Amino acid sequence: MLFPIKKNINVGTFRLPNNSVPKFVYKDFKLINKNEFNCPSVGLMNNRMYEMDSMFDIEIKFGLNNNEPYYNYTFNTDIYRDTIKVHEAIGSLICIEYDNNIVTLQFVTDSIIVTDDKDLELILLPPLETPEIEDCKFVSGSFYPYAWLRNLNASYVLSDNSKEGSIKLSMDKPLFTVLFNKPINLKEIKPTNEMFEYHQYMFDIVKYRKKINNIFPFILSKRPKKFL
Fold this sequence. Notes:
Helix content: 10-25%
Structural class: mainly beta
Shape: globular
Strand content: 35-45%
Distance between the termini: 30 Å
Strand order of the largest sheet: 2-3-15-9-12
Number of domains: 1
Radius of gyration: 19 Å
């Protein structure tokens, strides 16, 4: 079929506990594609594209200084107080790395996607409404959430290590776009102990080892047959 009709896949989302981030800061997924044109090609995208807005109005600058990565930020003090708690919350959401001569900054969310469909692919893309950025670019990626319970994040790579990158995020604008290869029914769920336990097998794994594919069969063997 040119425009095959696919059954919606059940997908759940939950947030990992983060004592530094109060719940009112979190943003929900927003469905962004609607077939308002009675077009079959547009309709094929129904229930497949979502966005999530930024948790803060914030400007982040990052770069490389004496071969060490750094970042600084400023945020809207008309909305959030300039207190240690706010800085702790922001600090828990930003991660910077320097590897293979590449500087990468991530604005991490605590949101996890769960599904029992082995073939469901999740693709992270830049937001359709591009944020203000300089000397850096969004890094897209994809994975299969059936086997890999990982945080969703907006990642940026420095374009030129001799320059400083800049990213401006707004609470009323998207942080990233999520595209699924199938239409889904997305709902917020209460995570189970089994979900938390399985997540621990892959938590921060890239900070410890390379060639993750070699250890992936062991990790997958620990997944329960059914989550939802």
